[in-house]
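Supplementary Note 3. Input sequence used for the single-chain structure prediction.
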Amino acid sequence: MKRAGILNRQLAGAVAELGHGHGVLVCDAGMPVPDGPRLVDLAFRAGVPSFAEVLDGLLDELVVEGATAAREVRDANPAATALLEDRFPDLELVSHEKLKELSAGARLIVRTGEARPYANVLLRCGVFF
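The predicted structure, written as discrete structure tokens, is reproduced below.
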């Protein structure tokens, strides 16, 4: 058994398969999940696990070279806005509709139990060297 890091076997395996340039959408429970990308659904109950918990767990294991979120987050979810701006100083903002379109090209989607609106971010994997 792993000692630390991501313990969920589906998520740990999916993370291990990611490469440079692959997209990972971390999303709230209400985000429409497109057909195509691999889905790891962690949602258990409303708010569990939270967007922040899952995002920070993934950031501990991934090299991220870019991040994109919906600009609507700024008005609808101040907590998610603060989290995203703290983690990603160069955060790109697009319309929620555009984020949904971009998510179809993700390699992996991780659905959280987050129940606050627009708690979604599309990560672009980088390399460690």
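The chain has a mean pLDDT of 97. Helices lie at 9-16, 51-59, 73-76, 78-87, 96-103.
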